[in-house]
Amino acid sequence: MVTTIVVGGFFGDEGKGKIVAHIANTDNPTIIARGGVGPNAGHTVLKNGVKHGVRMVPSGFVYDNARLLIGAGVLVDPVVLDREVSILGVGDRLGVDYRCSIIEEKHIIEDKGTEMLAKKIGTTGTGCGPANKERVMRSALQAKDFPSLKKYLTDVSQECNDAISRGENIIIEGSQGFGISLYYGTYPFVTSKDTSASQLAADVGVGPTRIDEVVVVFKAFPTRVGEGPFPTEMSPNEAKGYGIEEFGTVTGRARRIGYWDGKMARYSAMINGATQAAITGLDRIDPACKGVTDYDNLSDKVKQFLDQAEKDAGVPFTILSTGPEEHEIIDLRKIKK
User: Which positions are annotated as binding GTP (predicted)?
Assistant: First the structure.
């Protein structure tokens, strides 16, 4: 039985939602706990052929038997949370740590109205930065003080650690990507807190000695939304040549597209303490590989790319996504152990 962290390896939008959903449906966890910043990152997940974009509820909701928890380190927007709970029907499985800080309307107004954040940094305008600022100043409203959240309140760290002690599988899922970590990303073009695996463990109150696996998720063609350095960025015309055009789940803004960044992959794997990696978008390396579910059926071009990516990152690539659909995936975790 294992405790697994799933963390983004590049600038976000790596496809963590699909990877979390796959691990959940395969490993049968009792708990899926979300760390990360807050509703400023969206995860796109398919369930029974229906696409869902979630910003507050853990993307592992697709596995019906897991308790869904939001850790104390996460900012909660009650409006966004209520809407997702209503759409997804997961209220009976949801737990919100009573220590979570709340995003209020004033935070969203400040976020959108601050020129540096809105124009220079390219913030999502969801209020996370101002809410975290108020949290640091020790004047933030907490979940325990918000009436509509009362039915969800729990001690997430206690639930997670109790499950680990019982020998159950749990998943800790992150949001955002390593490249926009407040500490290790492209400062000042970053989010308002760290986004590494260590932070995710802290967000849900699980100590480092209780983590078994860290799956860092990469994208064959990295993308970035908003401003900031992007060393391997390609031109829009080059991206069109690969048939790549993407838009952010939260903002709807066009994503900037780049080539594989082996240097960043290695550094990300190191800081996150990755034990293995997942990669999405292999069908864009070779469209003929779309939907392939057997490693032996991948083309030589994709296999060569994977060999180099493994050397770059220094960890085995165990989960390979060959398309957006739920079944378009190759799981090599048992083989590569």
Answer: 12-18, 42-44, 255, 281-283, 321-323
Residue ranges of the annotated binding site for IMP are: 13-16, 40-43, 124, 138, 176, 191, 253
Task: Give 193: exposed, middle or buried? Use CB within 10 Å, 0-12, 13-18, 19+.
Answer: buried
pLDDT at 118 over 60: no
Residue appearing with tokens 């449906």 = 25
For 81-98, what is the mean pLDDT? Answer: 96
Q: Where are the domains of the chain?
A: 3-331
**Residue 323 CB contacts under 8 Å (≥ 6 apart), including other chains:** 283, 290, 291
- Whether 43 is catalytic is yes
Detail the residues annotated as belonging to a binding site for Mg(2+): 13, 42
The matching CATH number, chosen from 3.40.50.1110, 3.40.440.10, 3.10.20.340, 3.20.20.450, for 3-331 is 3.40.440.10
Does 106 or 337 have the greater pLDDT score?
106
- Residue 124 confidence (pLDDT) above 90: no
The whole-angstrom distance between residue 238's C-alpha and the CA centroid of its chain comes to 27
Provide the annotated binding site for substrate.
249-255
User: What one-character DSSP code corresponds to residue 179?
Assistant: G
CA-based torsion, 256, 231, 115, 139: positive or negative: positive
* 0.90 surpassed by pTM: yes
171 and 197 in contact (C-beta within 8 Å)? no
Active-site residue identified among 22, 43, 52, 107: 43
Give the tens place of pLDDT for each residue, 130-139.
999 999 999 9
pLDDT 10s digits, 187-226: 999 999 999 999 999 999 999 999 999 999 999 999 998 8
